[in-house]
Structure to design on (698 residues):
């Protein structure tokens, strides 16, 4: 349907919302901020008339002003999200008619996110709300419409007619922000929607006119990730009740880690909702461990999705414990920190310091110990019980609880003995996995796929979906040759032809045939042929011969990185990871960088365990060298026993997280390049990492 006027589109959309999608039929037209505050006061009165609250006496203007002053004091959408979802607000009664409460503090219910299209929830539309200009130099404004939940304007919608790009509606919202329209009562807006009849985008309130960023504008999509743009379908999904209520109550995230309010994307909603529904329907007495798994591509926000899933379960009382299980100990710290950043004031995120603490938190009936972050290493130790900290009575008590495990990066952690130990120990627990690269039939580990371990795929958001939606970065690979392809082909071809020179090759017809195959037709990379057999490529022979472990190769790698570092790092603004195939190579590269350019701030991370195998002394010496260099450069006092703390320090520096959240202003405190071996390539997030070097087999 084409709309030649914005007004016609506005009326049709509002009519659709009120007739078919849960919004009250009486539309509030041309209301000022004062009118909407009065409307809110009436709803608050209706919802709080009881004797222990308003005692059947209405709110005064002074009492409403107390609430507005609290809103003004909170200022940011982040804090206002907590205000809205905090269920209640306190005031001091100044209505003299309420003799029982006059001068006393009372608490008023403002919003209950659990009352979806039920209880005392009210859903109103304010059409063409009036915005009073903040200065005499500016004109008064009118918005298109606002969606009010329990009297609070939480979603603001700007429209354009057919043929006018949705970007103009977005720009109009930004202009209103510049003019300080969204202050006072209107600062409660959590989500903006900009749309025309053919397209709609939504985004969280950025809190600052300079924080507007189209990268954080999203299209709502269906369960299969097909974008929804037709206005009627947008009305029946994103703007409908119950979805709008859920969006504000459950699927906005006040992220304390960066001080931003975030709104979940449709694929995150479908995944979290599917997991919480699965838990709600679970028959615990049957002992079915297969909850399912979420396949969401790397970089699409799996940690936030898994957190919301865990939070929904914990708040629903459908489980007694929700355990977020992480493969690597060092990732536990970051995940716990991110969880705390996403959490609301009423959430308690429990990070377990050791197995004994984990046991106590699993035993506890305190609601504060419902949501637990721990590692698979600690969890598997419960059964192995090396320090005898778990008594059988403790285990019996724990096993009576309804426990949900949410496993991060489940493709990586779920096929070893530790995971099997956890599943055997908690035989009636429900397991869910998150992965960007689940194990399928063609790449199964130990005869198992991700489905075998976790159950059915619950939702998928592929790398193709992410790149199309611009929710993840596209790939920009750059292959740097340390040897010319012609030279390496000739070296392999001579070797396979069992010849030392070209003259020797062409003196024999048989050797010439073999030589030409490797020189002309054999691909560089190996492949699986139609019979299912792996056919080696030129690279396979080079790897077997150690060509990529030579001094010549490593020197050329180091020189290429150094030659291009200023451009790649944008003059040392960003940082890089360099992944090698072995600890021995990582140490070699570390020393080469130190020698080639002592000003480059480089360090290394790998498994620090020291055993009695050959090479243990060399490894210990390398660890000492790396730690001493790090301590000297950054004025630290780490040792081999405190290696884990050093890892946390490195992670914080690379991510510019506390205590290094302003580190970009002090370049001497930054790390330029981190060399890693089997660490931090998945599950670690930093906006300040912009390059990954790989000198290893993928």
């Amino acid at each position: 349907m084409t709309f030649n006027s914005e007004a016609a589109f506005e009326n049709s959309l509002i009519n659709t919302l009120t007739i078919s999608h849960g919004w009250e039929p009486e539309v509030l037209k041309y209301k000022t901020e004062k009118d909407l505050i009065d409307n809110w006061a009436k709803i608050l009165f209706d919802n709080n008339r009881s004797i222990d609250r308003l005692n059947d006496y209405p709110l005064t203007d002074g009492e409403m002003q107390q609430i507005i002053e609290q809103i003004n004091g909170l200022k940011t959408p982040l804090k206002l999200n907590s205000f809205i979802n905090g269920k209640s607000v306190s005031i001091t009664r100044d209505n003299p008619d309420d003799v029982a409460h006059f001068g006393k503090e009372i608490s008023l219910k403002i919003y209950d996110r659990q009352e979806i299209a039920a209880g005392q929830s009210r859903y109103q539309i304010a059409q063409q709300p009036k915005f009073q200009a903040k200065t005499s130099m500016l004109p008064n404004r009118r918005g298109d419409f606002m969606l009010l939940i329990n009297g609070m304007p939480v979603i603001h919608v700007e429209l354009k007619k057919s043929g006018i790009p949705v970007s103009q509606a977005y720009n109009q919202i930004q202009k209103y922000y510049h003019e300080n329209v969204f202050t006072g009562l209107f600062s409660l807006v959590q989500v903006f929607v900009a749309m025309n009849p053919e397209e709609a985008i939504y985004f969280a309130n950025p809190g600052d006119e300079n924080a507007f960023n189209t990268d954080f504008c999203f299209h709502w999509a269906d369960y299969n990730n097909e974008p929804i743009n037709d206005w009627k379908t947008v009305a029946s999904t994103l703007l409908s009740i119950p979805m709008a209520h859920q969006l504000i109550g459950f699927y906005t995230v006040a992220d304390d880690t960066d001080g931003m309010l975030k709104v979940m994307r449709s694929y995150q909603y479908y995944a979290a909702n599917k997991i919480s529904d699965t838990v709600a329907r679970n028959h615990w007495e049957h002992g079915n461990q297969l909850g399912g798994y979420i396949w969401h591509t790397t970089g699409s926000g799996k940690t936030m999705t898994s957190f919301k899933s865990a939070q929904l379960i914990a708040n629903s009382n459908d489980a007694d414990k929700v355990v977020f299980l992480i493969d690597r100990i060092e990732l536990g710290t970051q995940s716990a920190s991110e969880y705390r950043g996403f959490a609301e004031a009423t959430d308690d995120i429990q990070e377990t310091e050791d197995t004994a603490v984990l046991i106590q938190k699993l035993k506890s009936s305190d609601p504060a110990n419902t949501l637990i972050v721990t590692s698979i290493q600690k969890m598997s130790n419960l059964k192995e019980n090396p320090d005898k900290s778990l008594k059988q009575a403790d285990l019996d008590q724990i096993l009576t609880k309804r426990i949900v495990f949410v496993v991060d990066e489940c493709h990586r952690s779920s096929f070893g003995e530790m995971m099997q130990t956890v599943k055997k120990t908690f035989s009636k627990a429900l397991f869910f996995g998150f992965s960007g690269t689940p194990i399928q039939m063609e790449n199964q580990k130990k005869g198992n796929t991700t489905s075998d371990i976790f159950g059915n795929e619950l939702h998928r958001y592929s790398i193709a979906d992410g790149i199309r939606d611009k929710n993840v970065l596209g790939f920009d690979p750059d292959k740097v040759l340390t040897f010319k392809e012609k030279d390496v082909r000739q070296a392999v071809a001579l070797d396979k032809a069992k010849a030392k020179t070209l003259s020797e090759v062409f003196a024999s017809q048989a050797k010439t045939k073999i030589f030409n195959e490797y020189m002309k037709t054999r691909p560089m990379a190996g492949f699986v042929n139609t019979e299912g057999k792996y056919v080696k490529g030129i690279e396979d022979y080079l790897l077997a011969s150690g060509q990529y472990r030579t001094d010549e190769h490593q020197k050329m790698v180091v020189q290429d990185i150094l030659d291009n570092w200023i451009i790649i790092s944008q003059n040392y603004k960003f940082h890089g990871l360099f992944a090698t195939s072995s600890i021995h190579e990582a140490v070699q590269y570390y020393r080469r960088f130190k020698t080639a350019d002592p000003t480059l701030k480089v360090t290394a991370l790998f498994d620090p365990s020291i055993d009695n195998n050959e090479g243990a002394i060399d490894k210990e010496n390398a660890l000492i060298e790396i730690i001493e260099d790090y301590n000297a450069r950054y004025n630290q006092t780490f040792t081999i026993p405190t290696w884990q703390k050093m890892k946390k320090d490195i992670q914080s520096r690379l991510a510019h997280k506390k205590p290094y959240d302003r580190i970009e202003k002090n370049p001497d405190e930054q790390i330029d390049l981190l060399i890693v071996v089997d660490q931090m390539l998945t599950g670690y997030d930093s906006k300040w990492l912009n390059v990954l070097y790989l000198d290893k087999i993928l």
Observations:
- The chain has 25 helices and 25 strands.
- The radius of gyration is 30 Å.
- The first strand starts at residue 28 and ends at 29.
- The longest helix spans residues 616-634.
